[in-house]
Amino acid sequence: MKLDDIRHNIDLIDSKILKLLNDRFEQGLLAKRFKDKIEDPKREKEVMERIKNNANALVESDFSTGIYKNILTESKRLQGKSLVIIGFQGEHGAYSEEAVRHYDSNFVTIPCTTFNEVFEGVNSGTYDYGIVPVENTLGGVVGPVNELLINTDLQIIGAIDMPVHHCLLMVPGTDHRDIREVYSHSQALAQCRRFLSRNNLTPVPYYDTAGAARMIAEKQPRGCACIAGKLSAELYNLEILKENIEDLSSNRTRFLLLSKQPHEDGGTKCTITFTTEHKAGTLFSVLELFASSGINLTRIESIPNEPGDYSFFLDFDGSIKDPKIMDTLEKAEKQTSGFKILGCYSEKVVGH
Amino acid sequence: MDNLKLAKLREDGKRTTIKIGDIVIGEDFVVIAGPCGVESEEQTVETAKAVREGGGMMFRGGAYKPRTSPYDFQGLGLQGLKILEKARATTGLPIVTEVIDPRDVSWVCEFADILQIGARNMQNFSLLKEVGRAGKPVLLKRGMYSTLKEWLNCAEYILAEGNMDVMLCERGIRTFETYTRNTLDLSMIPAIRELSHLPVLIDPSHGTGKLSLIEKMCFAAIAAGADGLLLEVHINPCEAKSDADQQFNPQQFALLMQKIQKLQKFMQEKVFNSSIISGDL
User: Hey, what domains does chain B have and what are their CATH numbers?
Assistant: First the structure.
């Protein structure tokens, strides 16, 4: 072992400590949602006791209690700020998080394991908002999200249409010639298939793009790289070997922002969902209403509920405050069941 | 030259053209300019801007440098390729860069528009086969001790692998002359045109190694019918880490380009397109 190796290990540990501190502060912000006051002397005492009794070889209790006093003070300071919390699926650095930054970079992003957790978190008030991907130009619809949307009481309050540019990331200083395996979400791997085969790289599916970046940064497996966004490179201190490695540069994903309350000012785009009777021409008669009112449909999606039974999503241009649209929606509601306005919102198109 | 199949003159007389962006090598007279080596982002991007402003059509710069001594600057490698990509993004100029190792070919392809095989690697057959399988045009420099026959056979190696976008570049050969770095063999231009359909470019920077001689050699190359020139330009030649004595500064390059363009126009007159010996060339 050389001094350089040891220093390298120290740098890795430091970055882990900072990541863990960030995780801790995130949990602190969530805890605030369940408390009336920031101050909770009883809980603070508990935490400090546990720290004091949790002696590690070199970490003496005087030292650790000192640090923890600082941590608790900072955690309380953060709780005191009225920060807006938004949940997203994936690890920090995910494309959903990048989409949030395009919407409002002051939002605090909280990672969730599943899409369901995002919906639940908004529903319970733990998060102010949630963000979920609904469709990708190469990969098609995000099935699980659409199912959740049909059954949710949440409202869509915004949409972000964003280009997805994949990067090949590696631990800084890796010799790129040694790279053999590339970890990423199977979608991302599929979107970079030609790049991988050109360079003789073996794709290895992983549960999440940013998760793959985190794993590569933390475990530093030999001969391995990952595909993730630029944000992941920043967050996990990985080197971008090559940007824009997707086979089609038109790769885009559309994200929806969810909230318990509808968007106050409405917007220029609406999403509705409904089910039609299983009879010839029922869907057509609904669509005809929109056509005869001159309303531009921007997306129509059918999701199977039970065999033979379909729910439909309809996105269209316009505001629900527009009498023409109100009138059309009223008529549509009469012809369908399970009719629901998921939201009227404005859509932000990034980088077109 | 009997064993040439793909590099020899075609029966229909058609010459190879290679389209890169808006430029068609083999039809348009092309000037590829840039520093010998990629030394830093600032040096490279600034030089690329100067090349574009001066009228250069493509940007060259080495990320991997084959050097006489292992202790000389070896190039920035992958970092250099990334800098070249930035230079392209800033200026829009296509990138020409050398590849020296078969293991790097696919990666250099990800960043470059033309792969250069340097003089020292002209007969590196495994490298030639590898670039023959790559989907990028190749600029094949003449080895400093190589005959025309050997050179064309090296082009044949690339063509035989299925890559038809090959251009040749004369950069001077070793002779007993020591005043110049190499002896620029301009007779190769009409010789290649007699024997092959491949475009031929001239590198007078390496061909002479002397700044004061390059200008006139450019004129001679154009008069002899070259398809283009490779010129070394550095934003600050005195500070260059390699080939400091043969790199133009941006002002010199811009002045030279004006003259080149004038002569190039003049040479387009019909009378120069035929040979007094055998008619059309």
Answer: 18-266 (3.20.20.70)
